[in-house]
Amino acid sequence: MTTVAMEEYELMKDSKYRMYVAAVDKALKNFEYTSEWADLISALGKLNKVLLSYTKFPVIPRRIKISKRLAQCMHPALPSGVHLKALETYDIIFRCMGTNRLACELFIYSAGLFPLMGHAAMNIRPTLLTIYETHFVPLRDRLRPALSGFLSGILPGLDTGSDHFDRTNLLLENVCEGVEPSYFYTCIWQCVANNSPVRLPAISYVLTHYSRKLLMEDQLYLMGHDIGLMVSGLCAAVQDSSVLVQRSALDLLMVCFPMQNKQLLYADMVRLVTAALSTILRRDMSLNRRLYSWLLEQEANNLPLVQIEGELDQTLIPHHHSVAYDLLNDALKLILKKCSTELPIDIKPYRLLTSLFDKPQIGPVILDSILYDVFRTLYLSCLHQQKHKSSSVRCVSFNGDLTSLKNDENVLNKQFVTKNCQELVKNANLLFNTLQSYYIWSYIEKLYDESLTNIKNYKYRDRCQVNEIGSGAPHILEICILTDFLLDIIPIESYAESTSNILPNLFKKIISTLRINITEFNQHEITQSLQLCTKILTKIQPVSLTQLIKAEVEQENDSLVHETFEKSLESSLILENGKIGNEEQKTLEKKQV
Fold first, then answer.
1. Nearest-CA neighbor of 443 among 369, 379, 498, 494?
2. How much is the pLDDT for 494?
3. What residue stretches are annotated with the DOP1 N-terminal domain (predicted)?
4. What is the pLDDT of residue 493?
C-alpha cells in the first residue's frame, strides 16, 4: 500500500474521520439529482460546507469522485457562477491538503482545472490565477510532472493587451524560476509542437524573453534540453493554419536563428527551411517579407534576371548567402522527393518553385542546381502514377497466369501521361514559362556536355533509367530519357523560335559531341543519343519526316504485296502442273487396261 493509502487506513480508525467520509458521501449524492446549473451550485455549496467542517484532516475522502464532479462543473457550456463555485471548492481542498500532499495528488485535480483558462469568462480568470499563485507556484520543481499540462492551461490567458496579461506573465516567470529555465522552455516547445491553440502565446512569450543585447550563446536555456523538439515545434508553427502563428514563428527565426547561427545543425536548418517554404503558397506579403529577410539576412541588392546560360555573376552574391542557398537547394530537393511518390499527384512544389524563380535574388542562383531534379520529379511522378494504376488493374484482372504480371515498369508510357497527368503537365509548363523559351534546351545542352566530363565517374553507365531526386547530376542515358520526356510534354509549337533555332542547336550539339568524343561513349549511350536526335528531328520537321516514314511504309507494303503475289502465282502454277500430271497418269492407266 502507498503512504497515502496507509494514512487513510489509519484515519479510518478515527470515528470523526468516518463521520467525515459519510458526510462527503451524502454531499456527493446531491450531484445525482441535479437537473440545471442552479442545482450544481447548491450541490457544490453543500460539499464546501462539509469540507470546511473537517479542515483538520489533510486526507480528502472520496477524492477521485470529488475530482470527477469538479471537472464536470468546469464544462464550457455552464455559466461562470458554477465555475466560480467549483474554484472555491478547489481552493478549500488545496488549503486542506497542503503543498506536500498536493504535489503527490496533483494528477487527480489537474484534469478539471487546467483546461478552464482557455474558455473562462473574464471574471473567472482572477480567481483562477489566485489559485495558481497560492498553491502551484510554491510547488517549484515538484510541478515538473504536470508542467506541460499546466502551460497548456495557462498560455491561452497570455493575450497581449488583456487585463490579466501582466499577472499571467509574472505567474509564468515565477514557475520558470521554480522548475529551472531549461526544463521550463523544453515544456514550452513541447506545447508548441503538439498544441496548436497555444502556439501563438508560447512563441510570443519566448520572443518577449529573448534579449537582443545578448548572444544566443548566453541564452541557450531558451532552446530547452531537446533541440530536436524545439525544431519540430518551429516547423509545426511555420506550417500552422493561422497567419499570425506563422508570422511569429518567422520573427523568432529571424531574431534567434539566422542563417549563420552556430546553435543548430545543418540538418536542423534544412528541416526549418523546408517547413518555412510552405508559407510562400499562402501568397501573403507579410509572410513573404519575413521569409526572404530570414533567408537573405538583409535587403538584397537588385540582381539581374536569368542569363542565357543561366549563370549569375558570383561577385553580386554576398558570401554569407552561400549557406542560405545550400540550405534552400537541399530543402527544395526534399520537397520534390516527397511529392514524386505522393498519390494523388502533388502540384504545390511547382507553384512554390514558380514563386522562387520569380525572386531575382534567389531564382538565378539556385536554378541550375535544382532544374534537373525538377525534370526528375516530373518523370518520376508520372511513372509512380502509372505503376499505381497498372498494379491495381493487374490485381483486378489477374487470371492466375504469372506471365501476365511481367511488365517493364520503369518505362513511362506517353499515352498514359497525356491521359492521366494533365494537371501536373499544366503546372510544370507554367513553371517553365517563367524562364525564357531557349533556356531549358540550352540547359540540356550544358548538362549533356558536363556529363561527358564526368562520364568515367558514373558507376552504372548502362542503367537506362531516371535516378532518384538528389542523386547528383544526371548521366548521359538519363539525360536522353528526360529530354525525350520533355519533348513530349512541353508544347514546342508555343515557342516561335523553337523549331527554327533552339532545337536545331540542341541536335547539332548532341551530334557534334558524339562525333568528337565517340571513343568515350559506350554502345548504349550512342544508341540512346541517336534515338534522341531522331526524336528532335521529328519536332523540327514533323511533316517531312512523317511523309518520309509514310513513304517507306508504303514501299514496304508494296514490296510485301508483290512478294505475296509472286508466291501465290508460284503456288497456283505448282497446283496446275500437279493436276496435269495426275490426268496424264490416269490416261496411261486406262490404255494399259
1. 369
2. 60
3. 14-299
4. 66
Q: Does the pLDDT of residue 343 top 60, yes or no?
A: yes
Full 3-state SS string of 570-591: HHHHHHHHHHHHHHHHHHHHHH
Which residue's entry shows cell 532518384? Answer: 468
In angstroms, the CA 249 to CA 207 distance is 9
d(CA 295, CA 300): 10
Res 287 pLDDT > 60:
yes
Any residues with CB less than 8 A from the CB of 19 and at least 6 apart, and which? none
- Write out the three cell numbers for 544: 517531312
Q: Quick one: cell of 385?
A: 502514377
Query: Grid cell 541564452 — which residue?
Result: 219
Q: What is the pLDDT of residues 439-495, one digit of tens each?
A: 999 999 999 988 888 776 666 676 778 888 988 888 889 999 999 999 988 887 665
First to last CA, the chain: 130
**Given the C-alpha cell 518523370, which residue does it identify?**
379
Which of 539, 559, 543 lies closest to 489, judged by CA? 539
Give the pLDDT mean for 55-66.
90
- For residues 486 and 316, give the distance between their C-alpha atoms in angstroms, rounded to a whole number: 32
Q: Give one DSSP letter per residue of 185-217, joined into a string.
A: HHHHHHHHHH-GGGHHHHHHHHHHT--TTS-GG
CA dist 142 and 463 (Å) reads 63
Backbone angles phi, psi at 12, to 5 degrees: -65, -15
With left for phi above 0 and alpha for psi between -120 and 50, is residue 588 left, alpha or beta? alpha
pTM: 0.81
Residue type, 201: P
Of 63, 55, 53, the closest CA to residue 5 belongs to 63
- The answer to whether 190 and 152 are in contact (CB under 8 A) is no
Residue 169: enclosing H or E segment and its boundaries?
helix 165-179
3-state secondary structure of 157: helix
Q: Are the C-beta atoms of 114 and 150 separated by less than 8 Å?
A: yes
Q: Could you give the CA distance from residue 92 to residue 199 in angstroms, rounded to a whole number?
A: 33
Rounded Cα–Cα distance for residues 160 and 14 (Å) = 52
Residues 6+ apart with CB under 8 A from 480: 528, 529, 531, 532
65, 43 contact by CB (below 8 A): no
**Cα gap 491→494, rounded to integer Å:** 6
Q: What is the pLDDT of residues 47-58, one digit of tens each?
A: 999 999 998 888
Classified as helix, coil or strand, 194 is helix
Q: Measured between alpha carbons, how far is 374 from 462 in angstroms, rounded to an integer? A: 23
Q: What is the DSSP string of 5-56?
A: HHHHHHHTTSHHHHHHHHHHHHHHHGGGG--SHHHHHHHHHHHHHHHHHTTT
Q: How many Å apart are CA 402 and CA 341, to the nearest integer?
A: 27
The rounded distance, in Å, linking the Cα atoms of 132 and 130 is 5
Report the number of secondary-structure helices (H) and strands (E) in the chain: 25, 0
